[in-house]
Design goal:
By secondary structure, this protein is of the alpha+beta class. It has a single domain, classed as Alpha-Beta Complex (Sufe protein. Chain: A). The protein is about 40% helix and about 20% strand. It contains five helices and four strands; from the N terminus they run ααβββαααβ. Strands 3-2-1-4 form a four-stranded mixed sheet, covered by helices on one side. The longest helix is centred in the last third of the chain and has 18 residues. The structure holds zinc ion. The site of zinc ion has 8 residues, from helix 3.
Length: about 150
């Protein structure tokens, strides 16, 4: 059983209160905007890719605690990774938030604190918005929506 208190674990509250990498990147090589119409979450993702490495990644935007915390943790997790590592992490995160609630959660460090959204289908889009926007930025799309 997961209740809302579990969903809003301390780590999520902390990243919502003090989001990491919450700023624009003036000389970004990639950029995309994401919107989750179900909740009203909006974010702009900035990325600086140097060769095959994500040298810098940051975001701006407004949304619920889950969407903001997820974007904050994602930027922390992606910084310094190769593009192929980042894509693999996207797949693992996506699997974690969409698999049935009775399955064991893969250890993805802080990102695992978001596994509780599996019990709240509406919240899955909040948690995955940043990741879909990251993927769109990588593919050079300008906009993405979780719908
Ligand atoms: Zn939301």
């Amino acid at each position: 059983m997961t209740d809302l208190n579990d969903l809003y674990q301390e780590v999520i509250l902390d990243h919502n209160r003090c989001p990491r990498n919450f700023h624009a990147i003036a000389d970004a090589t990639h950029r995309a905007e994401g919107y989750n119409p179900l909740c009203g979450d909006r974010l702009t993702l900035y990325m600086k890719v140097d060769g095959d490495v994500i040298a810098d990644v940051a975001f701006e935007g407004a949304g619920c605690a889950i969407s903001k915390a997820s974007a904050s943790m994602m930027t922390d997790a992606l910084k310094g990774r190769s593009v192929s590592e980042a894509r693999a992490l996207f797949d693992r995160f996506h699997r974690m938030v969409t698999m049935p609630p009775d399955r064991a959660v893969e250890d993805l460090g802080k990102l695992s604190s978001l596994a509780g959204v599996r019990d709240f289908p509406v919240r899955i889009k909040c948690a995955s918005l940043a990741w879909h926007t990251f993927k769109a930025a990588l593919e050079h799309e300008q906009r993405t929506s979780t719908e």
